[in-house]
């Protein structure tokens, strides 16, 4: 795992190099970095000390943290959404749906779900974290759903970045025609990696799709992009990368 600032000038390795799927779903709470490692949820201090396994009885997916709760999708439990305390205690089922992903905000959660793993027509809902009231937002396959500045942003079946207005019904619009592996949004725009095998690279673009620029980050594949305070954290995969001339 690598940590860098939003200008990608200062790079620091937080864990040793492993297989591509070793470390994912990165979250920061105080001086702790939480992440999923295979079937376990672990945490480690930024200086590499005090590495702990706090959950290892399932295959957690899409782990996120809000307040004192860790939320994740339980693959072994019909992809229901579960939550537990930061120390791994008080595990409970939060939503009895076949979830594909979710995103947490201060007072609500956005989540996508279908009838089962073969249902490709997803429903996107919003649930209030205080009273658990639910509202259906729209239908359609999506990935990486983010709520930002009056819009929902997500990638569609074709890996294209889409946005649609929150306040009124409107046709979704394509932000960029590039095929995207992962993206995140900050105050300075959208950061994303390309969905291709070699030389993916990192890009930045305005929220409306204007002023695309390529950043000085090279990798076969860039994935798992997340904004954490003033930094962007992500995964890189340079396995079997061809030599450069």
Task: Give the averaged pLDDT, no decimals.
Answer: 84
Question: How do the helices and strands follow one another from N- to C-terminus?
Answer: EEEEEEEEEEEEEEEEEEEEEEEE
The main sheet comes to:
4 strands, antiparallel
Oligomer: single chain
Label the CATH architecture of the largest domain: 6 Propeller
Topology:
Elements: E1 2-5, E2 11-13, E3 24-29, E4 32-37, E5 40-45, E6 52-55, E7 60-66, E8 69-74, E9 80-85, E10 92-95, E11 98-104, E12 108-114, E13 123-128, E14 134-139, E15 143-148, E16 151-155, E17 161-165, E18 173-176, E19 180-186, E20 189-194, E21 202-205, E22 213-215, E23 221-228, E24 231-237
Antiparallel strand pairs: 1-2, 1-24, 3-4, 4-5, 5-6, 7-8, 8-9, 9-10, 11-12, 12-13, 13-14, 15-16, 16-17, 17-18, 19-20, 20-21, 21-22, 23-24
Structural commentary:
By secondary structure, this protein is mainly β. The protein has two domains: 1-141, TolB, C-terminal domain (Neuraminidase, 6 Propeller), CATH 2.120.10.30; 142-238, TolB, C-terminal domain (Neuraminidase, 6 Propeller), CATH 2.120.10. The chain is 0% helix and 54% strand. The protein is built from no helices and 24 strands. The strands form six sheets. Strands 2-1-24-23 form a four-stranded antiparallel β-sheet, with no helix packed on it. A four-stranded antiparallel β-sheet has the order 3-4-5-6, with no helix packed on it. The protein has a four-stranded antiparallel β-sheet with strand order 7-8-9-10, with no helix packed on it. A hairpin with a 2-residue loop joins strand 4 and strand 5.
